[in-house]
């Protein structure tokens, strides 16, 4: 079963401020649901070659993910790969708007996953819900003056 989850949201902050949070693994637990611990293995903002270990729960299953930045363009976009909670590609993309930043998040599964006991439509819905929830949490954090 494959998943291609996409969401976007407008955050009333400049792109550089959104990137400073979204592209810094130290902030991952503030906006990515289910994360318990994050261990940046490369310092600074995400860039090509950066590595991060993420530990969390997804659909009642504990995971420890090895995340690798495949490619990046400064404060515009980041392309990640992760082996858990299922094998996936993830893309964060930021676009300037007159009133803030359009933030896009896409999660694409690669191959099979460990959630075979769940109907494909339920799994896809859970991933889509998680992606939308993560962007809502990022927006709330940035617009409430926490950043």
Task: Considering the chains and any ligands shown, give keywords for the structure.
147 residues; alpha+beta; seven-stranded antiparallel beta sheet; 3 helices; globular
Detailed description of the structure:
This protein is α+β, with helices and mostly antiparallel strands and 147 residues long. Helices cover 24% and strands 41% of the residues. The chain is built from three helices and seven strands; from the N terminus they run E-H-H-E-E-E-E-E-E-H. Strands 1-7-6-5-4-3-2 form a seven-stranded antiparallel beta sheet, with helices on one face. The chain starts with a strand and ends with a helix.
From the helix content, strand content and strand pairing, which structural class follows? alpha+beta
Helix-residue proportion? 10-25%
Low-confidence stretches: none
The helix count comes to 3
| Strand composition percent | 35-45%
Taking the sheet with the most strands, its summary is:
7 strands, antiparallel
Which sequence of strands runs across the widest sheet?
Answer: 1-7-6-5-4-3-2
Number of strands: 7
What's the overall geometry?
Answer: globular
What is the alpha-carbon Rg in Å?
15 Å
Mean pLDDT: 92
Element order: H for helix, E for strand: EHHEEEEEEH
Q: Cα distance, first to last residue?
A: 38 Å
């Amino acid at each position: 079963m494959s998943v291609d989850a996409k969401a976007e949201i407008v955050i009333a902050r400049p792109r550089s401020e959104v990137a400073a949070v979204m592209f810094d693994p130290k902030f991952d637990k503030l906006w990515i649901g289910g994360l318990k611990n994050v261990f940046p293995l490369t310092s600074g903002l995400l860039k090509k070659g950066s590595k991060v270990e993420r530990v969390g729960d997804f659909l009642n299953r504990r995971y420890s993910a090895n995340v690798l930045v495949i490619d990046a363009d400064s404060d515009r976009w980041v392309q990640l790969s992760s082996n858990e909670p299922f094998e996936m590609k993830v893309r964060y993309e930021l676009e300037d708007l007159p009133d803030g930043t359009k933030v896009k998040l896409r999660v694409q599964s690669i191959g099979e996953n460990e959630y075979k006991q769940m109907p494909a439509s339920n799994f896809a819905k859970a991933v889509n819900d998680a992606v939308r929830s993560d962007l809502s949490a990022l927006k709330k954090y940035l617009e409430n003056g926490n950043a």
